Amino acid sequence: MIDAEDPIPPEGILLLEAFEFFYRCSTPHWADLQYRLNPREKMGLDEEPRRQFSAWDEYDCAQRMANQRFRKKVTEGNLAAFVRDPRHNQTLKLPLDGWDELGEFENGITANFVGPDDLFNRGPNTVVEGKRRPVFFIRSEFEKLVEAEPECDEAPEPTKPAEPELLEPKATPTPTAASKQTHPQSERAKRHIARLYPDGTNEISSEVIRKKLEKDPVLLAELAEHGGKPPSRGSIDRARGLRR
Asked: Cβ-count burial of 201 within 10 angstroms (0-12 exposed, 13-18 middle, 19+ buried)?
């Protein structure tokens, strides 16, 4: 089955982004788990595989537990899931059935696409016009849902929806000056970006930087020691002077 990378409405948040945020909110030790998957120090040859396997087992278990909690909220109607019908320009609400069972190969959610026969991302039928469509939620509804999670202290930054393929590409906006207001996350992002990209980031997107920061062992060790979360897309944009 073909997966279509359709744009979603500006008020939406994609399935994968929503789950990743929910996982971190509901898993207090997620940063420690992430760090243990790629530790800085080298272990003994006999000890390293054993500790690595243990870390992956704990990570998979934490992902699966978060996935079960997340899907339960969808199944119980606390969070409505949608796909788009691009041909008729309609938003289609997905049924509650199909979210409740996890297969033996499933731990966390790994894509924006689901299906009843998908071994890794089970869910309801999302095929429209012969292609699976990306699942999304209404951002405001998702933010209300995560407020109930005690570890969540901020809502995820809005992401810009993808541009339709038929539109001509827009000119790159002129970067604005950074705000004089102090943003701790932006300051942290700026410091680590300078370390990871000594030659600058002119040809690198903020999303690529965000993903690299999420896996950076130095940053993860700092977060494990002092608390906090990896810089969001918005914090990275502010650190680069792309938003106020």
From this structure: middle
